[in-house]
Structures are given as structure tokens and as C-alpha cells.
Amino acid sequence: MAAFLTSIIPVFDEGPLLLTSVTSILGQSFKDFELLIIADGATPRTLAVLETLTDPRIRIIHQANAGLSTARNRGMAEAKGAWITFLDADDSRPPWAFAEIARAAETAPDLILCPGVVREERGTFKPFFDQETFEAIAAVPQDLRRLALALQPQSANKVVSRQFLDRTGLRFPDGLFFEDLLFHLGAVLQADSIAVLEVPAFCYIRRFQRAQITSTSGRLRLDSIAVVRLALDHFADLAFAKGLAEPVLNACQTFLAWNESRCGHMQRAEFRLALATMKRLVDPRWQALWETP
Amino acid sequence: MKVTLRGLGLPVEAFAPAKAFLREDSLWRLRTHYGPALAARTLAPSGLALDVGAGFGAFALPFARTFPGWRVLAFEPDPECFADLVRNAPDNVLPLPIAVGGSDDAPEDPEAVRACLLRGEDPTALLPRRTFYRHATDHGYMQREPLEGGLALDCPVLAADLLDVLQPNLLKLIAPQTDALILQALAHVPLDHILGESWNPLRWADACHPSLPGRRETWVPLAGPGLTGLRHVPEPSDYRPGLDVIVPMLNAQEMIIECVGGVLWGADDDTRVTVIDRGSTDQSCACIDYAFAHDPRVRLLRHDGPTLASTRNWGRLHSDRSHIAFVDPSDLPGRLLFARAFELAMQTGAEIVQAPCHLATPHETGFHETPDDQSGHDLSPEAHRHAFLEMTCHLARPTGLPALAPRIGRRVYRRDVLDRRGIWFPEHLAAHDDLAFQLMTLHQVLDLPVLEGTSYGIRARPAPPPEADVQVLEALRLALLRGLDEGWPDLADLWSCMARTITQVAGRLPPERKPGFVTAAAELWALAARALPAPGAPPVIAPRVAELEARLADLPPSAACLHLQASGTWLRAR
């Protein structure tokens, strides 16, 4: 019988650290789930850890290394649960996360959004970076969709229904890093109904000893421009029809500004050039909005 | 009144004291401490939690609701809070109107108390009673010593060392006067989780040392601005918690014993001094053998590397500790410096911690009190001084990088940060490798904790020979390239350091070396200024820089950057 919820975890070279996510999923108080691990060209030390996992709710799917987007897309294609979540291998979920998600799912939304916490490199805890936006949503629920577009495009903060995915065909952009933004915008724009949790449902863990894609200063940052272009072109009709073009563009501009600030000094010139080129090629409706002060 | 407790999943309604402080303080702690700490953890399906300082149940109630397989023993001596705790407690919470005390509070029949606790019953009737004083306005605070205007309360007290019979799996600790005692009492218990808040200096090793049983996943911040606190997450690591102090030694017989002795002062077995002999021809090695042969914290290795940088790196490669420091054998670490610096590192999780430093006088012998701090770090008037064990500390910005004399010896570094960011002493530099290291490391952090109450004494060292001194340009080039590559947002300090360094080295080079150095320095400056916004060049190179800038004016910044990467001109300034 299909599980209520599928948790998708791509793994590559995390080694023993992948047990952070796996242990937290297996420790959920809500038990009706499948844990789908996508071994994305996993390294031997990671494969060795996978071989120790014996819980019958775990399925491991192997593929050649193709990146987070393709791994998550593969997970969505293989998922059997009515609800689908994502978690990075070195992050975790609190023990109550799935129970809270299951409660929110009772109203049958297309999308469930979750606040989180972050554990910083020095070991301190704080609410995830978009906590203020969640508080604004709670204060002004009629602005939910507009505000939700401004949430961090973190894959762990959203749960999507199987029906929603089948209806929209929403996927992550294959081959690109900084992939979360497109999925986030697509989920928020296309969901007929959205539920929001009140308690944290994921923990984003920053570690000194782990290189994270989001801390790179090199040319990978250019992928963020490609992701924005894809999102703007793909969702232009919907965003303008729903009167949400401005918050969509704001989210993209925030995303691009953050990426530019994290580039090395020389890469910044390249980034600006690539961005200027993209602005000339994107759907003209966005160009006009971009120029508006 | 009733409140809603949120933060551990399902909301829980609870009776709370009417007094706002008692109520709001607990709700704040649930929101900022317990909730986030438990959000990052996975608990076993069942276990025993000790909630010391339970209040009205702001932790115990949501915890018991979220983890129904667990039992919670909730200790709360304040009668007002206890009354609400009793009203609120579900079946898996046992409220106990008991304070936790020390060895002076031993009961007449400890075994009877233990048996009662093991049966899950209230041992109040078997416990001695003591008078506590409740603060007149801060109603959550009680203490044994009389408080002016305070309310005397008679409470049963359980000696902390009786808690171990319970073998708890989780400890939640709000016990301002007995937290250290409780941690010591549970030192042999396989505790998996420790959380709460502390008001007193606690030692990391008492709660989280890997030799202690259980996972010991810990988050107990110090009350207040919260720079320090006990923290530990047991994750796979290439390193064991501890400090390795690398001391490259070459003919240092006059000073090495004092130096190593200073490092070791007050340090426990988690600190090790690795003395690396670089081919001494005097009695340096014999001194180490004589003074430290029976001290397991000291080891003597030998390395025949081409440069001091190479030896420092080699020492690091042969270290398995989580933290590392690099000390010159002529330096004089002050009283308790490395013992407390390592503790500060563990209690802040910081990438780098440092101590003040001073120029040691020729006859200074170490173990002195803190002289005036000449380290030039940025202590603003608004900087908050935090109590830290018997010392104090504050958070500083890594500004004011001094030219030359980089003073890296006074810093303790996290090993995982250095490794992850690929920061090493440049192997090929015969001098100024520590300058490159300092520039690269300090730009990795926004701030760093600074220990107060001790100081690192630096003895004046002779300048390198000129053929090595000119390599300062290579050190600066390497730092510049890293800054370009990593996108360092604030390069003002780097430019300032470059200007002062170039001026000082130019000023001490022999006449026959100076023109070549000035030319090479000017070229480095001009290329860097083409790639990045730059201040005016220092006078010693300014005319040459102006000439070069004119020649480079039509080239894009990327061309200058590429040349900086590709050229080795500055290894040997001609």
C-alpha cells in the first residue's frame, strides 16, 4: 500500500553525515512514510553508509551523478506517497515534522509551507532566514500567496501533493545549481490552496567542514541567472494574470542580488554581464517591470 | 491564567503564574532555546527526562506531549509555579516540589531516597528541608543566602549526587546555583541530551567531553548576551576534541622550556604541545627531554623541511585535534592562556579565538599578569564584557591588522575551518608566511572572541635576511588573490596592511636591494588597484605606481587579475 508521504533525500558524497537526515526521518513520530534516497553517483564512502540501512521504509535508487535537480526529479517520478517532501542529506527534521504536515494535509491543500530553524556553524540556533515572512503570513493571511513568494526558496520548507505535481508537471531544472527558486515560484504560483505550519519542520545545518553549493564564489553562481530566466519565462503568463508579477520579480531580484554578492570580485563582472544579457532576452513584460523604479 | 505553549509540535494549553516575569521568561526560553534545540535532534522513542527548574511546565508539558513514550521528572521548588505544574501535568510528568542541592544536603537515608526515585515516587518526605530566599521582584529566582527584601521559603532538597540513580537520558537544566554540581553528579550517566541555560561558569569537559558516556548533544547557552555556552553535536569528524600547539624549534635552548611550560599552564590532557625540531645543534632537544619527558601532553618530533612554513604545515598534518595553534619558541604565553583559549573556543564555537599580546621585555620570564594590550584589536566602547570562568572575554572585529609581526601565536584556530577553506602557510615562503596566514584567516570571520585576563608575550625577533624579506610581496599577492577569488567585501584593512608592510620592508632593505623591491611592490600595487578599488599608494612606491597605472589604463580589470595569478615576479624582487 502506498505511503502517505514520500521523503526524498539525494545523496552524493556526504558519507556518515547522511545519517543526520536519515535518522531524523526514521525518528518521526508519524510513521506512514517512505524514505526515498537517490544515490546520485554516490561515492564509495556514501554507498558504504547506505548499505547499513535496513528499515523497510527505505528505498534506494541509484543513478549516475546528475545533480540535485535531476535527483529530486527522479525521486518525484519514483515516489509512491500522496505527499512529497525534500530534504538535503546533511539537514534534519524535528521529530514532530511529519505529524504536523499530516495535520495540515487534512484540508487537502496543494502545497504546505513550513518554517524552519538554522543551526549555525558555531552551534547557535535561530529561526530560519524567512521567519519574519512566516510571521507576516500569520498576521495577514489574505496576503499569503504574495508573501509566500518572498519565502526562502529552500526545498525542505515545502510539501507538495502528488495530484498537484501530476496536474502541473512541476519539476526542478535539470543540470542547474541554485535550482530551488524555480520550484518554489512554480509551487506558490500554481497551487490552488496553500497551508502553512506554525512550528518549525526542518533544520538547516551549516557546518564549517562541509562545502555547500550556496557558499561557492565561482562560476556556479551563473546558474542562478539561468534559473531566474527559466522561471520568468515559464511563469510569465500566470504571474501577470494573477497580479503577482511584482512579487515574483522581487523574489528573483533578491535571489540574484544575493548570488552576485557571493561571487568573487572578478566573477562579479561576468555575473553582471550575464545578467544584463538575460534581461534583454527574457519575456518583454519582465523587461518593462525591471526598468520600473 | 492560561497560556498556549508552542514550539515542540502540537500546541499545549497550560495554567501559568499570574506574575508576568515567571510566565514570559519561560515562554521565551521555550521559543528561543528548547524549541530550536529539539528541532535539530532525534530522540529515542522512550526515555527519562529530568527537568530541573521546571517552572509551570513550559518545557515539561510540550515535551511530554510530543514524546509520549518518555517520562519527565519535573523539579520545581517555587510553590506558585509548582501549583500550576501540578495542574498541568499529564500522566507522564511527575512534578516534584524539590530543589536540587549539594553534598551538604545529603538525606539521612540516601538508599531509601534512591529506591523511592527508582519507583517513580515523590521522595519529599525523606529529604532534608532548607530555607531558600525568593527574590522580591524577580520571582523565578531563589537562593540559599538571605536576600534583602526576599521571601523565605522552606523547601525539601535533593542532593545532586542522588540523581545518577535515575540514569536519565535527557537533562533540561535551569538551576542557577547548582548546574555545575548536577553536571558533575551525572558525569557517569549515559546522557544523550543536555539543554537549558546557565548563569554560572561551566566547563565544557564537565558536560560534553567525548570520554563521558552517552551522546551528550548539548546546548546550554550562558544567560545574557550569549557569547559563550556549552555546545556539542556528536557528528562524524576527522578530529578529536582538543588543542594541538605546534612549536617549531631551531636552537632555542634558552627559551623553549619557558615557552612550553607557559603553553601547558592549567591545560588538561586535551591540550598537547607538539615541538618539532628543525635540526637544532644546541641543547634544545635535551631541554625538552629534561623538562617534559614524563608529561604525556608534550611530544617531540623532528622535521627537516625547507622552511618554517613547511614545518608548521607538517605539524598540522600530524595533528588529530579539533583546534590548533602555532607558537614561536621564543614567545611567552601568559597564565592559563591556552587552557582558557581552548575552553573559549569550545564554548563559542568560533573559527578563531585570540588573547591580547604584548612585546615581552628582554628579562621577562612569563607567568605574569596582563600588561597593556598592544595587539591593536578593535575593542569598541560598546563591546560587552562577558564573564568567562575566572576571566572575561569580549567579541571583537578582526580589524587593525598590524603590519609585520603578525602575532599568530596568540590565536587558537578551528581545524575544520582551516581545512575546508584550504588555508595553509605558503610552503615556498622563507619569511612572512605568517603574514599571509593571518591575512587569509582573519578575513574568514566577521568577529572573534578575545580572552582577557592573560596575555601572549612576543619577544622581538630579528628581521629576515633581505632575500627572504622581499618575499613579503608574495605573501601579499597570495592574500590578494584569495580576496579576489572569495569576494572579500571589505579590503580596507588589506590595503592598509600592504601600504604599511611595503613601507617598512623598503625602509630596512640594504640600498642595493631597494630599487628592485620598489619596482616589484609598485607593480603588485598597480595590478591590484586595476582589479579592485584602491586607496593611494604609499609614498615609497607612488611615483612608480603612477607610471604603471598609465601603462595599464586601457586594459580591463580581468587582465590585471590574470597577471596577478600567473606571475611569480614577487618571489624574488629584483
Short synopsis of the structure:
With 293 residues, chain A is α/β, with parallel strands linked by helices. Chain A is 43% helix and 15% strand.
Strand fraction of chain A = 15-25%
Strand content of chain B: 15-25%
Q: What share of residues of chain A is helical?
A: 40-55%
Radius of gyration of chain A: 19 Å
Overall strand count of chain A? 10
State the end-to-end CA separation of chain B: 82 Å
Mean pLDDT of chain A: 94
Q: Show unreliable segments of chain B.
A: 367-378
Account of the 3D structure:
The complex is a heterodimer of chains A (293) and B (574). Chain A has 13 helices and ten strands. Chain A has helices spanning 19-26, 44-50, 68-78, 97-105, 131-139, 144-148, 162-168, 180-190, 223-234, 236-241, 245-261, 265-281, 284-291, and strands at 5-11, 33-40, 58-63, 83-86, 111-113, 117-119, 125-127, 158-161, 194-196, 203-205. In chain A, α8 (180-190) packs parallel to α9 and α9 packs antiparallel against α11 (245-261). Residues 367-378 of chain B have low confidence and may be disordered. The longest helix of chain B is centred in the first third of the chain and has 20 residues, at 20-39. Chain B is built from 18 helices and 25 strands. In chain B, α14 (472-486) packs parallel to α16 (514-531) and α16 packs across α17.
SSE topology:
The complex is a heterodimer of chains A (293) and B (574).
Chain A: E1 5-11, H1 19-26, E2 33-40, H2 44-50, E3 58-63, H3 68-78, E4 83-86, H4 97-105, E5 111-113, E6 117-119, E7 125-127, H5 131-139, H6 144-148, E8 158-161, H7 162-168, H8 180-190, E9 194-196, E10 203-205, H9 223-234, H10 236-241, H11 245-261, H12 265-281, H13 284-291
Parallel strand pairs in A: 1-2, 1-4, 2-3, 5-9, 6-10
Antiparallel strand pairs in A: 4-8, 5-8, 6-7
Chain B: E1 2-5, E2 12-15, H1 20-39, E3 47-52, H2 60-66, E4 70-75, H3 79-88, E5 93-96, E6 99-101, H4 110-118, E7 129-134, E8 142-143, E9 151-159, E10 170-173, H5 179-185, E11 193-196, H6 204-208, E12 217-221, E13 229-232, E14 240-249, H7 256-264, E15 271-277, H8 284-292, E16 298-302, H9 308-317, E17 321-326, E18 332-333, H10 337-348, E19 352-354, E20 357-359, E21 386-388, E22 391-396, E23 411-414, H11 415-420, H12 433-442, E24 448-452, E25 456-458, H13 466-469, H14 472-486, H15 492-508, H16 514-531, H17 542-552, H18 557-566
Parallel strand pairs in B: 3-4, 3-10, 4-5, 6-9, 10-11, 11-12, 14-15, 14-17, 15-16, 20-25
Antiparallel strand pairs in B: 1-2, 7-8, 7-9, 12-13, 17-23, 18-25, 19-23, 21-22, 22-24
Helix pairs in contact in B: 12-14, 14-15, 14-16, 16-17, 16-18
